[in-house]
Amino acid sequence: MQVKDLVLRKRMLIPILIVIFFCLSFVVDSPRNLWNGYVNILKSESILVTDYLAIGGLGATLFNVATILLFNYLIIIHLMKLKITGPIFAGLLSIIGFSFFGKNIFNTIPIYLGIFIYAKAVKTPQRNFILSYLFATGLSPVVSYFYFGIDIPIALAIFLGTVIGVFVGFIVPSLAAHTIKFSQGYNILNTGFALGVISVMITSILNTIGIQIEVNDITTDKYHNFLLGLLILISCLYLISSFIIDNKAIYRYKKILHKSGRLVTDFIRDNDHAPTQINIALMGFLCVLLVIIFDIKITGPVFGSIIACMGFSAYGAHIKNTTPVILGVILMTLFSNVNFDNTRYVVTLFFSFGLAPIAGRYGFFAGLLSGVCCTFISRTTVGFQGGLCLYNTGFSAGFIAAIIIPVIESFRKEI
Q1: What CA–CA distance (Å, rounded) separates 3 from 312?
Q2: Mean pLDDT of the chain
Q3: How far apart are CA 85 and CA 316, in angstroms?
Q4: How does DSSP classify residue 363?
Q5: Average pLDDT over residues 391-395
Protein backbone atom coordinates (compact mmCIF):
# COMPACT_ATOMS: atom_id res chain seq x y z
CA MET A 1 0.00 0.00 0.00
CA GLN A 2 1.36 3.41 -0.97
CA VAL A 3 2.10 5.87 1.82
CA LYS A 4 -0.20 8.38 0.12
CA ASP A 5 -3.11 5.96 0.14
CA LEU A 6 -2.39 4.90 3.72
CA VAL A 7 -2.32 8.45 5.13
CA LEU A 8 -4.95 10.14 2.95
CA ARG A 9 -7.46 7.32 2.74
CA LYS A 10 -7.00 4.74 5.51
CA ARG A 11 -5.83 7.20 8.16
CA MET A 12 -8.06 10.12 7.04
CA LEU A 13 -5.15 12.61 7.37
CA ILE A 14 -4.96 12.15 11.14
CA PRO A 15 -1.14 11.69 11.13
CA ILE A 16 -0.84 14.94 9.15
CA LEU A 17 -2.98 16.78 11.68
CA ILE A 18 -0.82 15.46 14.54
CA VAL A 19 2.32 16.77 12.82
CA ILE A 20 0.68 20.13 12.10
CA PHE A 21 -0.38 20.68 15.71
CA PHE A 22 2.98 19.57 17.11
CA CYS A 23 4.98 21.75 14.74
CA LEU A 24 2.78 24.80 15.18
CA SER A 25 2.97 24.54 18.97
CA PHE A 26 6.74 25.10 18.85
CA VAL A 27 6.58 27.69 16.08
CA VAL A 28 4.16 30.06 17.81
CA ASP A 29 5.78 30.02 21.27
CA SER A 30 9.07 29.41 23.03
CA PRO A 31 9.66 26.05 24.76
CA ARG A 32 9.68 27.75 28.19
CA ASN A 33 6.36 29.54 27.65
CA LEU A 34 4.88 26.42 26.09
CA TRP A 35 5.81 24.28 29.09
CA ASN A 36 4.58 26.83 31.66
CA GLY A 37 1.33 27.21 29.77
CA TYR A 38 0.89 23.46 29.47
CA VAL A 39 1.32 23.05 33.24
CA ASN A 40 -1.36 25.72 33.75
CA ILE A 41 -3.68 23.74 31.46
CA LEU A 42 -3.10 20.52 33.40
CA LYS A 43 -3.81 22.32 36.69
CA SER A 44 -6.99 24.09 35.55
CA GLU A 45 -10.47 23.08 36.74
CA SER A 46 -11.49 22.75 33.08
CA ILE A 47 -15.23 23.12 33.69
CA LEU A 48 -17.37 24.89 31.07
CA VAL A 49 -16.29 27.26 29.73
CA THR A 50 -12.51 27.14 30.28
CA ASP A 51 -10.66 28.24 27.19
CA TYR A 52 -7.18 26.71 27.30
CA LEU A 53 -6.00 29.52 25.01
CA ALA A 54 -6.71 31.92 27.86
CA ILE A 55 -5.23 29.58 30.49
CA GLY A 56 -2.05 28.42 28.77
CA GLY A 57 -1.64 30.35 25.53
CA LEU A 58 -1.64 29.24 21.90
CA GLY A 59 1.51 27.09 21.90
CA ALA A 60 0.56 25.14 25.00
CA THR A 61 -2.97 24.55 23.72
CA LEU A 62 -1.75 23.24 20.38
CA PHE A 63 0.69 20.99 22.23
CA ASN A 64 -2.16 19.72 24.42
CA VAL A 65 -4.18 18.92 21.30
CA ALA A 66 -1.27 17.12 19.65
CA THR A 67 -0.41 14.98 22.67
CA ILE A 68 -3.96 13.78 23.31
CA LEU A 69 -4.62 13.16 19.62
CA LEU A 70 -1.39 11.16 19.30
CA PHE A 71 -2.20 9.20 22.46
CA ASN A 72 -5.62 8.17 21.16
CA TYR A 73 -4.36 7.51 17.65
CA LEU A 74 -1.74 5.10 18.98
CA ILE A 75 -4.38 3.30 21.07
CA ILE A 76 -6.69 2.91 18.08
CA ILE A 77 -4.23 2.04 15.34
CA HIS A 78 -1.41 0.25 17.11
CA LEU A 79 -2.89 -1.28 20.27
CA MET A 80 -6.41 -2.11 19.10
CA LYS A 81 -5.51 -2.35 15.40
CA LEU A 82 -8.73 -0.68 14.27
CA LYS A 83 -9.53 1.03 11.00
CA ILE A 84 -10.72 4.62 11.07
CA THR A 85 -14.46 4.49 10.52
CA GLY A 86 -16.93 7.38 10.56
CA PRO A 87 -17.64 7.12 14.31
CA ILE A 88 -13.93 6.79 15.13
CA PHE A 89 -13.08 9.78 12.95
CA ALA A 90 -15.79 11.81 14.68
CA GLY A 91 -14.32 10.81 18.03
CA LEU A 92 -10.78 11.79 17.04
CA LEU A 93 -11.78 15.22 15.76
CA SER A 94 -13.94 15.74 18.85
CA ILE A 95 -10.81 15.08 20.89
CA ILE A 96 -9.04 17.78 18.90
CA GLY A 97 -11.91 20.17 19.50
CA PHE A 98 -12.36 19.61 23.21
CA SER A 99 -8.63 19.69 23.82
CA PHE A 100 -9.04 23.43 23.30
CA PHE A 101 -11.40 23.73 26.26
CA GLY A 102 -11.58 20.90 28.74
CA LYS A 103 -9.59 17.78 27.90
CA ASN A 104 -5.99 17.13 28.79
CA ILE A 105 -3.91 14.02 29.35
CA PHE A 106 -4.16 14.42 33.12
CA ASN A 107 -7.95 14.40 33.37
CA THR A 108 -8.62 11.72 30.74
CA ILE A 109 -6.51 8.81 31.98
CA PRO A 110 -8.72 7.93 35.02
CA ILE A 111 -11.74 7.70 32.72
CA TYR A 112 -9.84 5.47 30.30
CA LEU A 113 -8.88 3.27 33.24
CA GLY A 114 -12.55 2.93 34.21
CA ILE A 115 -13.49 1.80 30.70
CA PHE A 116 -10.59 -0.65 30.70
CA ILE A 117 -11.79 -2.16 33.99
CA TYR A 118 -15.37 -2.37 32.71
CA ALA A 119 -14.27 -4.26 29.60
CA LYS A 120 -12.35 -6.70 31.77
CA ALA A 121 -15.33 -7.10 34.11
CA VAL A 122 -17.74 -7.99 31.31
CA LYS A 123 -15.06 -10.08 29.56
CA THR A 124 -15.35 -8.17 26.30
CA PRO A 125 -12.48 -7.08 24.01
CA GLN A 126 -11.33 -3.51 24.62
CA ARG A 127 -11.83 -2.62 20.97
CA ASN A 128 -15.58 -3.11 21.38
CA PHE A 129 -15.61 -0.01 23.57
CA ILE A 130 -13.56 2.26 21.34
CA LEU A 131 -16.36 4.85 21.10
CA SER A 132 -16.56 4.97 24.87
CA TYR A 133 -12.83 5.66 24.99
CA LEU A 134 -13.18 8.45 22.44
CA PHE A 135 -16.28 10.15 23.81
CA ALA A 136 -16.45 9.40 27.55
CA THR A 137 -13.79 12.02 28.26
CA GLY A 138 -16.49 14.62 27.81
CA LEU A 139 -16.64 14.27 31.59
CA SER A 140 -12.94 15.04 32.02
CA PRO A 141 -13.78 18.25 33.94
CA VAL A 142 -15.16 16.07 36.74
CA VAL A 143 -11.65 14.76 37.35
CA SER A 144 -10.01 18.19 37.14
CA TYR A 145 -12.62 19.76 39.39
CA PHE A 146 -11.93 17.26 42.16
CA TYR A 147 -8.19 17.63 41.64
CA PHE A 148 -8.06 21.42 41.69
CA GLY A 149 -11.50 22.92 42.34
CA ILE A 150 -12.26 21.76 45.88
CA ASP A 151 -10.43 23.12 48.89
CA ILE A 152 -9.16 19.86 50.39
CA PRO A 153 -5.66 18.39 50.87
CA ILE A 154 -4.04 17.63 47.52
CA ALA A 155 -3.50 13.92 48.29
CA LEU A 156 -7.20 13.47 49.08
CA ALA A 157 -8.16 15.53 46.02
CA ILE A 158 -6.07 13.35 43.70
CA PHE A 159 -7.51 10.20 45.28
CA LEU A 160 -11.14 11.37 44.98
CA GLY A 161 -10.68 12.71 41.46
CA THR A 162 -9.10 9.50 40.28
CA VAL A 163 -11.72 7.26 41.92
CA ILE A 164 -14.60 9.28 40.50
CA GLY A 165 -12.96 9.38 37.07
CA VAL A 166 -12.61 5.60 37.11
CA PHE A 167 -16.24 5.27 38.23
CA VAL A 168 -17.39 7.50 35.38
CA GLY A 169 -15.44 5.46 32.85
CA PHE A 170 -16.85 2.26 34.30
CA ILE A 171 -20.53 3.22 33.89
CA VAL A 172 -20.43 5.14 30.59
CA PRO A 173 -20.36 2.14 28.18
CA SER A 174 -23.54 0.56 29.53
CA LEU A 175 -25.36 3.88 30.01
CA ALA A 176 -24.60 5.16 26.50
CA ALA A 177 -25.92 1.91 25.02
CA HIS A 178 -29.31 2.57 26.63
CA THR A 179 -29.66 6.33 26.12
CA ILE A 180 -29.69 5.95 22.33
CA LYS A 181 -33.20 4.52 22.74
CA PHE A 182 -34.28 7.74 24.47
CA SER A 183 -33.59 9.88 21.40
CA GLN A 184 -34.28 7.04 18.92
CA GLY A 185 -31.02 7.77 17.12
CA TYR A 186 -31.95 11.35 16.22
CA ASN A 187 -29.28 12.85 18.45
CA ILE A 188 -25.88 12.28 16.83
CA LEU A 189 -24.30 13.39 20.10
CA ASN A 190 -25.86 10.50 22.00
CA THR A 191 -22.92 10.00 24.37
CA GLY A 192 -23.29 13.65 25.35
CA PHE A 193 -26.74 12.88 26.71
CA ALA A 194 -25.44 9.93 28.73
CA LEU A 195 -22.61 12.01 30.16
CA GLY A 196 -25.02 14.85 30.93
CA VAL A 197 -27.09 12.50 33.08
CA ILE A 198 -23.99 11.47 35.02
CA SER A 199 -22.86 15.10 35.48
CA VAL A 200 -26.29 16.06 36.81
CA MET A 201 -26.04 13.27 39.36
CA ILE A 202 -22.56 14.35 40.47
CA THR A 203 -23.53 18.03 40.60
CA SER A 204 -26.61 17.21 42.70
CA ILE A 205 -24.54 15.21 45.18
CA LEU A 206 -22.00 18.02 45.49
CA ASN A 207 -24.76 20.59 46.00
CA THR A 208 -26.32 18.42 48.68
CA ILE A 209 -23.09 18.38 50.71
CA GLY A 210 -22.66 22.12 50.31
CA ILE A 211 -20.27 22.34 47.35
CA GLN A 212 -21.58 24.77 44.74
CA ILE A 213 -19.96 24.63 41.30
CA GLU A 214 -19.61 27.97 39.56
CA VAL A 215 -19.71 27.68 35.79
CA ASN A 216 -16.67 29.34 34.19
CA ASP A 217 -16.58 32.00 31.52
CA ILE A 218 -12.87 32.13 30.68
CA THR A 219 -12.28 32.84 27.00
CA THR A 220 -10.03 34.82 24.68
CA ASP A 221 -10.32 35.75 21.02
CA LYS A 222 -6.78 37.14 20.65
CA TYR A 223 -5.83 34.24 18.35
CA HIS A 224 -8.86 34.68 16.06
CA ASN A 225 -6.96 35.26 12.81
CA PHE A 226 -4.57 32.37 13.41
CA LEU A 227 -7.40 29.94 14.21
CA LEU A 228 -9.49 31.10 11.25
CA GLY A 229 -6.54 30.45 8.97
CA LEU A 230 -6.03 27.03 10.57
CA LEU A 231 -9.68 26.10 9.95
CA ILE A 232 -9.39 27.10 6.31
CA LEU A 233 -6.15 25.11 6.01
CA ILE A 234 -7.65 21.94 7.49
CA SER A 235 -10.77 22.25 5.31
CA CYS A 236 -8.61 22.71 2.21
CA LEU A 237 -6.49 19.69 3.13
CA TYR A 238 -9.55 17.44 3.21
CA LEU A 239 -10.89 18.84 -0.05
CA ILE A 240 -7.56 18.43 -1.86
CA SER A 241 -7.09 14.97 -0.37
CA SER A 242 -10.49 13.85 -1.66
CA PHE A 243 -9.54 14.72 -5.24
CA ILE A 244 -6.12 13.10 -4.91
CA ILE A 245 -7.82 9.88 -3.84
CA ASP A 246 -10.56 10.08 -6.48
CA ASN A 247 -10.94 13.02 -8.86
CA LYS A 248 -14.52 11.98 -9.60
CA ALA A 249 -15.59 11.80 -5.96
CA ILE A 250 -17.80 14.85 -6.32
CA TYR A 251 -20.22 12.81 -8.43
CA ARG A 252 -20.63 10.33 -5.59
CA TYR A 253 -20.87 13.01 -2.93
CA LYS A 254 -24.55 13.71 -3.61
CA LYS A 255 -25.40 10.24 -2.27
CA ILE A 256 -24.36 11.48 1.17
CA LEU A 257 -26.92 14.29 0.95
CA HIS A 258 -29.72 11.72 0.69
CA LYS A 259 -28.84 10.21 4.07
CA SER A 260 -30.92 11.28 7.08
CA GLY A 261 -27.90 10.97 9.39
CA ARG A 262 -29.81 8.97 11.99
CA LEU A 263 -27.56 6.83 14.19
CA VAL A 264 -25.69 4.83 13.19
CA THR A 265 -24.69 6.45 9.87
CA ASP A 266 -21.12 5.86 8.78
CA PHE A 267 -20.30 7.83 5.63
CA ILE A 268 -16.84 6.26 5.31
CA ARG A 269 -18.32 2.76 5.33
CA ASP A 270 -21.30 3.56 3.11
CA ASN A 271 -19.84 6.12 0.70
CA ASP A 272 -16.05 5.62 0.83
CA HIS A 273 -13.31 8.00 1.93
CA ALA A 274 -13.17 10.58 -0.87
CA PRO A 275 -16.84 11.68 -0.84
CA THR A 276 -16.70 11.75 2.96
CA GLN A 277 -13.67 14.05 2.87
CA ILE A 278 -15.55 16.39 0.53
CA ASN A 279 -18.35 16.48 3.09
CA ILE A 280 -15.85 17.24 5.89
CA ALA A 281 -14.34 20.07 3.87
CA LEU A 282 -17.70 21.59 2.91
CA MET A 283 -18.90 21.54 6.51
CA GLY A 284 -15.69 23.28 7.50
CA PHE A 285 -16.22 25.94 4.83
CA LEU A 286 -19.84 26.39 5.96
CA CYS A 287 -18.68 27.08 9.50
CA VAL A 288 -16.03 29.51 8.25
CA LEU A 289 -18.71 31.29 6.21
CA LEU A 290 -20.87 31.68 9.33
CA VAL A 291 -17.87 33.07 11.22
CA ILE A 292 -17.36 35.70 8.52
CA ILE A 293 -21.03 36.61 7.99
CA PHE A 294 -21.81 37.10 11.69
CA ASP A 295 -18.38 38.45 12.62
CA ILE A 296 -17.91 35.62 15.13
CA LYS A 297 -14.72 35.82 17.15
CA ILE A 298 -13.00 32.45 17.34
CA THR A 299 -12.13 31.42 20.87
CA GLY A 300 -10.90 27.97 21.93
CA PRO A 301 -14.45 26.61 22.45
CA VAL A 302 -15.64 28.07 19.13
CA PHE A 303 -12.71 26.53 17.25
CA GLY A 304 -13.31 23.24 19.06
CA SER A 305 -16.99 23.16 18.17
CA ILE A 306 -16.23 23.74 14.48
CA ILE A 307 -13.63 20.96 14.42
CA ALA A 308 -16.12 18.61 16.11
CA CYS A 309 -18.71 19.55 13.49
CA MET A 310 -16.23 18.58 10.80
CA GLY A 311 -15.57 15.30 12.60
CA PHE A 312 -19.24 14.34 12.69
CA SER A 313 -19.39 15.04 8.97
CA ALA A 314 -18.23 11.44 8.68
CA TYR A 315 -20.89 10.27 11.10
CA GLY A 316 -24.26 11.69 10.06
CA ALA A 317 -23.97 15.46 9.54
CA HIS A 318 -23.95 17.09 6.12
CA ILE A 319 -24.90 20.48 4.69
CA LYS A 320 -28.45 19.50 3.77
CA ASN A 321 -29.51 18.15 7.17
CA THR A 322 -27.46 20.58 9.27
CA THR A 323 -28.39 23.91 7.66
CA PRO A 324 -32.05 23.97 8.84
CA VAL A 325 -30.99 23.33 12.44
CA ILE A 326 -28.31 26.02 12.29
CA LEU A 327 -30.83 28.47 10.83
CA GLY A 328 -33.15 27.72 13.74
CA VAL A 329 -30.40 28.56 16.22
CA ILE A 330 -29.55 31.76 14.32
CA LEU A 331 -33.17 32.92 14.24
CA MET A 332 -33.69 32.23 17.93
CA THR A 333 -30.43 33.98 18.80
CA LEU A 334 -31.35 37.08 16.77
CA PHE A 335 -34.84 37.26 18.28
CA SER A 336 -33.34 36.88 21.75
CA ASN A 337 -31.28 40.06 21.33
CA VAL A 338 -28.09 38.08 21.86
CA ASN A 339 -25.07 39.00 19.78
CA PHE A 340 -22.57 36.52 18.42
CA ASP A 341 -19.83 37.71 20.76
CA ASN A 342 -21.18 35.28 23.36
CA THR A 343 -19.08 32.11 23.17
CA ARG A 344 -21.80 29.95 24.78
CA TYR A 345 -24.35 30.79 22.10
CA VAL A 346 -21.84 30.37 19.29
CA VAL A 347 -20.83 26.95 20.59
CA THR A 348 -24.51 25.98 20.65
CA LEU A 349 -24.79 27.20 17.06
CA PHE A 350 -22.06 24.91 15.79
CA PHE A 351 -22.94 21.93 17.99
CA SER A 352 -26.57 22.05 16.91
CA PHE A 353 -25.56 19.60 14.15
CA GLY A 354 -26.32 16.95 16.76
CA LEU A 355 -29.99 17.30 15.77
CA ALA A 356 -29.31 17.12 12.02
CA PRO A 357 -31.04 13.71 11.62
CA ILE A 358 -34.37 15.34 12.50
CA ALA A 359 -34.08 17.60 9.45
CA GLY A 360 -32.73 14.69 7.42
CA ARG A 361 -35.75 12.53 8.24
CA TYR A 362 -38.63 14.98 8.66
CA GLY A 363 -37.61 17.96 6.55
CA PHE A 364 -36.60 21.60 6.73
CA PHE A 365 -39.19 22.94 9.18
CA ALA A 366 -38.68 20.11 11.66
CA GLY A 367 -34.98 20.90 11.60
CA LEU A 368 -35.68 24.60 12.04
CA LEU A 369 -37.88 23.88 15.07
CA SER A 370 -35.25 21.63 16.64
CA GLY A 371 -32.67 24.42 16.23
CA VAL A 372 -34.96 26.91 17.94
CA CYS A 373 -35.49 24.50 20.84
CA CYS A 374 -31.77 23.76 21.05
CA THR A 375 -31.00 27.43 21.64
CA PHE A 376 -32.98 27.97 24.82
CA ILE A 377 -32.75 24.46 26.26
CA SER A 378 -28.93 24.48 26.04
CA ARG A 379 -28.88 27.66 28.11
CA THR A 380 -30.71 25.87 30.91
CA THR A 381 -28.95 22.50 30.91
CA VAL A 382 -25.47 23.96 31.39
CA GLY A 383 -26.60 25.23 34.80
CA PHE A 384 -27.93 22.08 36.34
CA GLN A 385 -25.15 19.84 34.99
CA GLY A 386 -22.67 22.22 36.61
CA GLY A 387 -20.42 22.66 33.60
CA LEU A 388 -18.93 19.24 34.32
CA CYS A 389 -20.06 17.81 30.98
CA LEU A 390 -18.31 19.29 27.95
CA TYR A 391 -21.04 17.92 25.66
CA ASN A 392 -23.76 20.23 26.96
CA THR A 393 -25.45 20.63 23.56
CA GLY A 394 -25.49 16.85 23.18
CA PHE A 395 -27.18 16.64 26.56
CA SER A 396 -29.89 19.11 25.60
CA ALA A 397 -30.25 17.57 22.13
CA GLY A 398 -31.25 14.28 23.74
CA PHE A 399 -34.24 15.96 25.42
CA ILE A 400 -35.19 17.82 22.25
CA ALA A 401 -35.18 14.68 20.11
CA ALA A 402 -37.17 12.78 22.75
CA ILE A 403 -39.84 15.51 22.73
CA ILE A 404 -40.00 16.48 19.07
CA ILE A 405 -39.95 13.04 17.43
CA PRO A 406 -43.10 11.62 19.14
CA VAL A 407 -44.99 14.85 18.37
CA ILE A 408 -44.00 14.79 14.70
CA GLU A 409 -44.84 11.09 14.43
CA SER A 410 -48.28 11.62 15.97
CA PHE A 411 -49.14 14.32 13.40
CA ARG A 412 -47.82 12.16 10.57
CA LYS A 413 -50.14 9.36 11.66
CA GLU A 414 -53.08 11.78 11.79
CA ILE A 415 -52.31 12.95 8.26
Answers
A1: 25
A2: 91
A3: 12
A4: -
A5: 87
